[in-house]
Amino acid sequence: MFTDFLMELNSRAALIRNDGDYLKDDFLHCGVCNEPKQAVKIIPFANNKKLIVNLQCRCEREKEEKYRLELAEQERQRRIQYLIRHGLTYPKYRECKFSADDQRNPDITKLCCNYVRHFQEMQDINNGILFYGDSSKGKTFYACCIANALIQREVPVLVSTLSNLVQNRVKAMKGEAYEISLNEFKCIVLDDLGTENITQTAFNIIDEIYLSKKPLIITSNLGPSQLKFSDMERKRIYERILEMCGTKILVKNNKSRLQSGIEKGKTADNILKS
Length: 274
Ligand SMILES: [Zn+2]
Known about the structure:
It contains 10 helices and 10 strands. With 274 residues, the chain is an alpha/beta fold. The protein has 2 domains: 87 residues, no CATH class; 185 residues, P-loop containing nucleotide triphosphate hydrolases (Rossmann fold, 3-Layer(aba) Sandwich), CATH 3.40.50.300. It starts with a helix and ends with a helix. The protein binds zinc ion.
């Protein structure tokens, strides 16, 4: 029996021996961290037979953990690349990141960063943002900074235009394209709103976003007062959009400012300006 024990010790020790490892009290120890690589295990259902089992020393545990983290990070990067390909429909949207921000509007940058940080709360109260004003690039830049940062947190975001979504639906109905499913996304960004034709399909898309309570982020040359059209078709679509975009931010070419009020009440105001 004791011979069996020693034989098992020797055979198992040989399997995990590295340069520098040494025997101490008949057990193999790691030459780096000095932890034992073996232990005695009593098997109750086999007449309390003693088995020598291999242990992972600290170095091996750390090596395995590092490998596990590397695999998880590779998987995370694969998921992020998928979200970028499917959510950011134009390459120009992918370049708009907080790291490329020139800090010309630190208040807006801060609010956008807070929006990302507190996205769960924004979802809970269904609060989106309207970026408006005459700036040619600023509005899309900030909206896409939020989209890119959310995607880095593995939140599926779609950035598109209402016109493109309408075209996609029309083509999909003819069997000429796969329909973009809004269900796949937790946040929708519609760029350059206000120039599109208002059709029933356009209304259906906005209605779908409205009913699903997904946060909606809009960029538009038109401000809140200009989006209040008198014709019924535009009125009913923009009223919903204005309701969903509780935070309204004026972006100008040189200098921008936050609109004084955030309409979703004190909660959103406190979260985003803190
Ligand atoms: Zn070790």
